[in-house]
From TrEMBL:
NCBIfam families hit by this protein: PRK05878.1, pyru_phos_dikin
Amino-acid positions noted as binding substrate in the UniProt annotation, renumbered to this chain: R573, R629, E757, G778, T779, N780, D781
Entry keyword annotation includes Nucleotide-binding: yes
Cofactor list: Mg(2+)
Binding site for Mg(2+): E757, D781
Residue positions of the active site: H467, C843
Domain of life: Bacteria
Residues in Pyruvate phosphate dikinase AMP/ATP-binding domain copies: 59-299, 305-369
Protein name in UniProt: Pyruvate, phosphate dikinase
């Protein structure tokens, strides 16, 4: 078996499409090499070795050692060096790389191959002993930390100690001779901790690092990450071993990261950051604030540090060409790592770049115009869930801005909240219902939970590619990074902004579009959805088969949904209209009357209010379908909660409060969600259905006249299990339609259908469809009733179920396709058998969930219906489902 694939010198044994075998990093290094780009030569040990390793008691295949040796020789020939050679030593990096990038895996070890001998040769060749010893001590620190498990703070202490004794403040002031002494201390520290010396043998170093990469595949951190992201455990990781190039060889050397387009806005402009005389992750670590790569970005940022373009024009020009070449080759925006060693450019990584939703849209649309992508491909390039980010507010341009400081606009959107300094504080405040901005010098992976809890993130250090910036963009949260004028004092709980003192708890606003930090709360604007959004959605709309409707009952929500492109209302929950203060008393009167006459009197008061509600909706939806569901929840939800409320109702009906209290007690149920609700209420109290039907029909007549387009009306009966239930209610509705027609002379087109939200309804769909003219799958209740799990009580154990791998996803968020989905499929098939062409939709939470939408497409539903803010997501997901 071939376990090792080499790359470098304009060729490679692997290629970009071999990610499962070589991991993402290895496959793309191979591809770049074959494209003739300057990639330091190296080789990839395949993911199959990782699989073998765990299947065989953590041992390697027999042929591996020889294959690694041969590959090292190839690299040696390509570089004119030899691994472990005392005159011309080859140094390498050891890098992990799974199919998808995965935090939790072993950190990269740089400068491997250095020892007491080779360090001298490296220094002599570079004419710079300081550089050589600096690299050696970095290697000992890194290797001891990630491979040998020695706590890195011990090394820091030695270093600090040395600086203090010699009154030095910067690492760069430490001389070569001093480093030699420090290295000795580092080595004895390792020996003391491990009981054996720091490995001097390069082979031992290499196999130690390789073992550490494979070992890190099964660490708790890596496992957790895989579980959260649905990454199978048997994928395994690859190991990349690559000749070192040095960005820390003085002022003509540098290291950096770049995006071929702006990952925040999508603008077609090379975008990135670098540091002179630096190595590895210095740029993203936020230790020094990096410099811009292009002149353009430098000017826009108003930076006084020179750009790479100005500083190293030749290397820059080559880099720019390579960026263009890679983008055209991969037909996607790339995220790159590079190093310049004494003026010579080297490429160290390329991959598809993470981007904001705004950037994803712009890049997809631009690339179609540039001829790089087809419209279908562009549709597939945007992740539907990410559109959510675009729906975030921005600061009203007319609002007054009290600017406290300015940082980098690291992630778009604006947010206001109280200042907190730790992730724990952020979480606690969030749990208490407060909105906070997480303010930190810089963030690290331990801050993820705090970033989740915060409305936005502000850092005083680090650039556009710092941890805070990258993670915030991924989360769709506003972020201002690298606001260097802020002095954050965690201990005192203060931020000093050029003399202006802000305290923990003070409200600030951050503007991710400009990088401004503003005092107090600032007026925001809701986003407008035109431009690239409109174009891509237009393509999506042309491709999708299913319609997208919304769940809405207020005029405000309905209008928003229309703007977002809803093609009708799939679910209007009439009971939501019952809670408004002007009518709740009448609703309570209706419920608490123990006789039909009393109920009818109260319903008569509600009729005009409901009529107006419906009229508004019909007018906004102007001829688009509107599905109105009759009263659904158990009556006790409307009952007065306090004595005062009870008194009000008693006075309104003119009965004794005590009698009323008794009636309220009678209405109590053990299990209201499975109790007297839905069509069961309408069967008991048909006058409720009559009032609602009258309000609906009268409103339809009026709205039809007013708008000139007849209302497209669908009346939906909830919680039907028996065909007979539907028939009883339907009779009342039909009678009311006839009555209103008689009174107004207007013939109204309407359909009567049902929610399918009980297993019995799904199974009996063939029978029920004899009466029902449409079905809407109410998958919230259907999930509850299929699993026998109450949604409101599920939180206490569903988390455990997920952790133990019993279920992959919360079935209330993403449709359980095997179980609940099976019922939806059965319901659809049986319904269609009875009534070919019966209209089928879904109106649970799942109607706005992309993977559930794919399922709906696969069984041929006619539409999905979801909350207004998810309508754009559903439109895009429905289009993707057809491609
Ligand atoms: P990650 O997946 O965390 O980005 P990488 O393996 O890409 O880890 O490397 C971490 C850092 O080390 C990056 O900045 C990378 O460019 C740098 N690096 C890796 N290999 C080499 C090498 N052979 N020479 C110089 N720098 C390297
Ligand atoms: Mg890393
Ligand atoms: Mg990398």
């Amino acid at each position: 078996t071939k376990w090792v694939f080499t790359f470098g010198n304009g060729s490679a044994e692997g290629a970009a499409d071999m990610k499962s075998l070589l991991g993402g990093k290895g496959a793309n290094l191979a591809e770049m090499s074959s494209l003739g780009l300057p990639v330091p030569p190296g080789f990839t040990i395949t993911t199959e070795v990782c699989t073998y390793y765990y299947a065989n008691g953590q041992s390697y295949p027999d042929e591996l050692a020889a294959q690694v040796k041969a590959a090292l020789d190839t690299v040696g020939v390509a570089t004119g060096r030899g691994f472990g050679d005392k005159d011309k030593p080859l140094l390498v990096s050891v890098r992990s790389g799974a199919r998808v990038s995965m935090p939790g895996m072993m950190d990269t070890v740089l400068n491997l191959g250095l020892n007491d001998e080779t360090v001298k040769a490296i220094g002599a060749a570079a004419h710079d002993m300081r550089f050589a010893y600096d690299s050696y001590r970095r290697f000992i620190q890194m290797y001891a930390d990630v491979v040998l498990g020695v706590d890195h703070s011990e090394f820091e202490e030695v270093l600090e100690d040395h600086k203090e004794r010699n009154e030095l403040s910067l690492d760069t002031e430490i001389t070569a001779e001093d480093w030699v002494g420090i290295i000795e201390k580092f080595k004895s520290l390792v020996e003391r901790d491990l009981g054996r010396p720091f490995p001097q043998d390069p082979d031992e170093q290499l196999w130690g690092a390789i073992g550490a990469v494979f070992g890190s595949w099964e660490t708790p951190r890596a496992k957790t990450y895989r579980r959260l992201h649905d990454i199978p455990g048997d994928w395994g990781t690859a190991v990349n071993v690559q000749a070192m190039v040095f960005g820390n060889m003085g002022e003509t050397s540098a290291t950096g990261v770049a995006f071929t387009r702006n990952p925040s806005t999508g603008e077609r402009a090379l975008y990135g950051e670098f540091l002179v005389n630096a190595q590895g992750e210095d740029v993203v670590a936020g230790i020094r604030t990096p410099q811009d790569i292009t002149e353009k970005a430098k000017k826009e940022a108003g930076s006084d540090k020179p750009s790479l373009e100005a500083l190293m024009p030749e290397a820059f020009a080559e880099f720019r060409d390579i960026c263009d070449k890679l983008e055209t080759h991969y037909r996607d925006m790339q995220d790159l790592e590079f190093t310049i060693e004494q003026g010579k450019l080297w490429m160290l990584q390329t991959r598809s770049g993470k981007r904001t939703a705004k950037a994803a849209l712009k890049i997809a649309v631009d690339m179609v115009a540039e001829g790089l992508l087809s419209e279908e491909e562009a549709i597939m390039r945007v992740e539907p869930g990410a559109l959510d980010q675009l729906l975030h507010p921005t600061i009203d341009p007319a609002a007054k801005r009290d600017i406290v400081a300015t940082g980098l606009p690291a992630s778009p959107g604006a947010a206001s909240g109280a200042i907190v300094f730790t992730s724990e504080e952020a979480e606690q405040a969030r749990a208490a219902g407060k909105r906070v901005i997480l303010v930190r010098v810089e963030t690290s992976p331990e801050d993820i939970h705090g970033m989740h809890a915060a409305e936005g993130i502000l850092t005083s250090r680090g650039g556009m590619t710092s941890h805070a910036a990258v993670v915030a963009r991924g989360m769709g949260k506003p972020c201002v990074a690298g606001a260097g004028s802020l002095r954050i004092d965690y201990r005192k709980g203060t931020v000093n902004a050029a003399g202006r003192l802000l305290n923990k708890g003070d409200i600030i606003t951050i503007d991710g579009a400009t990088g401004q930090i503003l005092a107090g709360e600032v007026a925001m604007l809701q986003p407008t959805l035109s431009g690239d959004f409109g174009i891509l959605m237009g393509w999506a709309d042309a491709k999708r088969r299913m319609k997208v409707r919304t769940n809405a009952e207020t005029p405000a929500d309905t209008r928003v949904a229309r703007e977002f492109g809803a093609e009708g209302i799939g679910l209007c929950r009439t009971e939501h209209m019952f809670f408004d203060s002007d009518r709740i008393i009448a609703v309570r009167e209706m419920i608490l009357s123990d006789e039909e006459t009393g109920r009818r009197a109260a319903l008569a008061k509600l009729l005009p209010m409901q009529r107006n509600d419906f009229k508004d909706l019909f007018e906004i939806m102007k001829g688009l379908p509107v599905t109105i569901r009759l009263l659904d929840p158990p009556l006790h939800e409307f009952l007065p909660k306090t004595d005062e409320e009870l008194g009000e109702v008693a006075a309104a009906i003119g009965v004794d409060a005590e009698k009323l209290r008794q009636r309220a007690l009678d209405l109590e149920e053990f299990n209201p969600m499975l109790g007297h609700r839905g069509c069961r209420l309408l069967v008991s109290y048909p006058e409720i259905a009559e009032m609602q039907a009258r309000a609906i029909f009268e409103a339809a007549v009026e709205a039809g006249k007013k708008t000139g387009s007849p209302v497209h009306l669908e009346i939906m009966v909830p919680l039907v299990g028996l065909k007979g239930e539907l028939d009883l209610v339907k009779d009342r509705i039909v009678a009311m339609a006839d009555a209103v027609k008689g009174e107004t002379g207007v013939e109204i087109n309407y359909q009567v259908g049902t929610m399918v939200e009980l297993p019995r309804a799904a199974l009996q769909a063939g029978e029920i469809a004899k009466s029902a003219e449409f079905f809407s799958f109410g998958t919230n209740d259907l999930t509850q009733t299929t699993f026998g799990i109450s949604r409101d009580d599920a939180a206490s154990f569903l988390g455990t179920y997920q952790a133990k791998g019993l279920i992959e996803q919360d079935p209330f968020v993403s449709l359980d396709q095997d179980g609940v989905g099976e019922l939806v499929r059965i319901g659809s098939e049986r319904g269609r058998q009875t009534r070919p062409g019966i209209k089928l939709g879904i109106c649970g939470e799942h109607g706005g969930d992309p993977s559930s939408i794919h399922f709906c497409e696969s069984i041929g539903l006619d539409y999905v219906s979801c909350s207004p803010f998810r309508v754009p997501i559903a439109r895009l997901a429905a289009a993707q489902a057809t491609l």
